[in-house]
Structure formats: structure tokens, C-alpha cells
Amino acid sequence: MSRTLVLVRHGQSDWNLKNLFTGWRDPDLTELGVEEAKAAGQRLKAAGLQFDIAFTSALSRAQRTLKLIQGELGQEGLETIRDQALNERDYGDLSGLNKDDARAKWGEDQVHVWRRSYDVPPPGGESLKDTGARVWPYYIHRIQPHVLSGGTVIVAAHGNSLRALIMALDGLTGEEIVAQELATGVPIVYKLNADSTVASKEVLAG
């Protein structure tokens, strides 16, 4: 019984590079992002992992990351389910803005609250708590059953949708999870117990 869950944040996107709030906007990967995704696939291959099913968001940067990983694993035909429940946090009115420009408009302290608080959403957008409210049920009903039945599952998604999952898996508070940085293109490998609790966690950094 494998009961393995792998989480990986998409490789660097064009808007990550430009320091823009991205959210549900849909920029592509940079050249570095492509290399990060391929490297993630190589590290998963070196760990001997092959997947039974894959989940990703409705956004192309996560989908392309997953495809590049599949290519490295020789699993191009892997069943893949795409759902906006796994999309990045919606940054609302901040989407598309340079982070420095946002600070100039609303002030350093206010932008910091929007970015790093657990439950304060930006105008027209989602807080991390709001993001979790769509991610957690999707995980419980769609993803977790594949893992608990003994499968090996990969989820390629985004910084904040994955933070919400990690918060639940690791039993972290809202304050603890917002302080955690999630590197692009670095797989996190969970092994679950039969009762869905975490047996082990390994970060496959380069």
C-alpha cells in the first residue's frame, strides 16, 4: 500500500519574475520555470516514484508544470484531473499589479496584511482561509480517496492552494502556515497512514 501524496508548486511564472500579483490570471512559465518543473520530475524519478493519477488546477502554469514532470517520468498518458478548486488564491483587485505599485497605492502595512494574514482578503479577492474553504473539501472528496486506497497521487498547483493543503496535513495554525514559504518546482512527498494522518514527509530539494 503506497498511500503516497506528492505536492508540487508550479515552476516560476512570467509574473513571478515580474513581481506581479497573479492569482487567477494565467501567465506561462519562464525558461527557469520550465527547468524547475523538469528538475522536479527528475527528482521524483530518482526517488522511484510513478503515479496512478494526477490533479492540477485550471491554470496553465500548473498544468504545464505537471506535463513537464510527466515527461521526465515517461508518464505522458497519466490520467489527469483539472479543477479550479486547486487554483491559486484569487487576489482580486491586486491581480496584475506590481507588488511595489500596490504598496505605493495602499501602503506597506495594508499590503502586508493582505499577503500574510490568514483571514483578511484583498479587495474583491480571497484570503488564505477562503482558499482553504474550496481546497479542503475537494481534497477530502476527490484526492484523498485515491491516496487512502493505496495509490500514488501527484498534485501540481499553486503557492496558496498548496499552503491550505499543507496546513491541514501538518496540523498548522493560520499564523504558522502564512509564515511558510513554498519553493517553486520542489516536490513534497507525504506518506499517509490508513486513518489519513501523516506517516512521513520529505521535501525533495535539489
From TrEMBL:
The keyword Ribosomal protein belongs to this UniProt entry's keyword annotation: no
GO biological process: gluconeogenesis; glycolytic process
Entry keyword set: Gluconeogenesis, Glycolysis, Isomerase
Keyword Electron transport: no
Pathway: Carbohydrate degradation; glycolysis; pyruvate from D-glyceraldehyde 3-phosphate: step 3/5
InterPro entries hit by this protein: His_Pase_superF_clade-1, His_PPase_superfam, PG/BPGM_mutase_AS, Phosphogly_mut1
Catalytic activity: (2R)-2-phosphoglycerate = (2R)-3-phosphoglycerate
Gene3D superfamilies found in the cross-reference section: Phosphoglycerate mutase-like
Catalytic residues identified in the record: H10 (tele-phosphohistidine intermediate), E88 (proton donor/acceptor)
UniProt-recorded Gene Ontology molecular function terms: phosphoglycerate mutase activity
Site (Transition state stabilizer): H158
Enzyme Commission no: 5.4.2.11
Role description: Catalyzes the interconversion of 2-phosphoglycerate and 3-phosphoglycerate.
Quaternary organization: Homodimer.
Family recorded in the similarity comment: Belongs to the phosphoglycerate mutase family. BPG-dependent PGAM subfamily.
Protein name as catalogued: 2,3-bisphosphoglycerate-dependent phosphoglycerate mutase
Species name: Aureimonas ureilytica
Organism lineage: Bacteria, Pseudomonadati, Pseudomonadota, Alphaproteobacteria, Hyphomicrobiales
